[in-house]
Amino acid sequence: MAGDDTIPHHAVVVIGGGQAGLSISHYLKAEKLDHVVLEKDTAMGAWTKQRWDNFCLVTPNWQCQLPGHPYDGPEPDGFMRKDEIITYLEAFRHKVGAPLHEGVSVKRVKARAGGGFEVITSTGTITADQVVATSGGYHTPIIPRFAERLPKSIRQIHSEQYRNADSLPAGEVLVVGSGQSGAQIAEDLHLAGRKVHLAVGDAPRCARFYRGKDVVTWLAEMGYYDMPVERHPLREGVRDNTNHYVTGRDGGRDIDLRRFALEGMRLYGLLDALDGTTLTFSPTLKAALNEADRVYNGINAAIDKHIAETGIDAPPPSVYAPVWEPEDEPRTLDLEAAGITSIIWCIGFQPDFRWLDAPVFNGAGHPQHHRGITQVPGVYFLGLPWLHTWGSGRFSGIDRDARYVAERITELAAGTAPGLKAAS
Hints:
With 424 residues, the chain is α/β, with parallel strands linked by helices. The protein contains nine helices and 22 strands.
């Protein structure tokens, strides 16, 4: 489809300049397909602006398999720290050489009457035959409304704003949420000597190492990371699951909230409400800890089965036994009496695709697609959690997803997509 001569036109507009946007650009360039990548901030800015100082990967470096850019450093079984990740990604950016435009935010994408799409940006309007949303699914930080009523003397930040323990005012800290970010931030503060209160959610956990190998290595050998969402027991429901908490810090180890409690961290159940300066919690702590341990032992049991069935020579099995049990379910916390001066909200993000005017979303605002292909010809998603497999939102699976989406884009552009008419 030809655009208005007065409006810039591209065969494909890619919206988002993170690893997903650059990955699809890699394949579009290989197909010599005209495209542009628009990034509202700086390319892969989330890695420099939304990660704390001691952040590191929770999966081994060998899983970093961006298109044409596998990890080739000296520690394939190690876990890159923030500065090393940025170096790895900068090398990828340079290698791809994408037609990237930074500082350009997309305000609206809508279908054109004559075919294709109009893309309204902060720097003007362009048109496209096809569009790919590669901005991920973590857009709007979740903070409960009652947080507005907390005393102004208490500093509140979201996990994306946390940098280090010294950046917080002196005093005790409440971390709300125990997913990957919450558990690791709580550990970071705990190791820095801060008194931490942690509101524990329903996140599962897993071992770092078991029977002589990293658990990720075992799961890769067992084919877990190649399982498509359609074959997962939860089907599409797995996209709403909270990630297991574990860490790659200091060479990798388990995160055991029970051990933190033994060492002085104060644990609570789900945060429920606020009354004055007193927070109330649901009596869910014991159940949450028990369920996290059940998942932990269940993953290890699956590895035991794999070892037995394949006859692998490995160290003997083991079962985690709790090192601490809560004596009761703490139901309240007076922030002023406890000396809490900071709260870190680690309860995730909501997607925000309001800029995309297309019938491709469910009632919760989440994209509906199959492997990133929507029911609207020419509209695609890439880089979402469980877009196709566990690795879809990570360095490990984006290559396969980007290649697949690029093939569909090329087919549509050439008029060979099954059941679809190419834009003209």
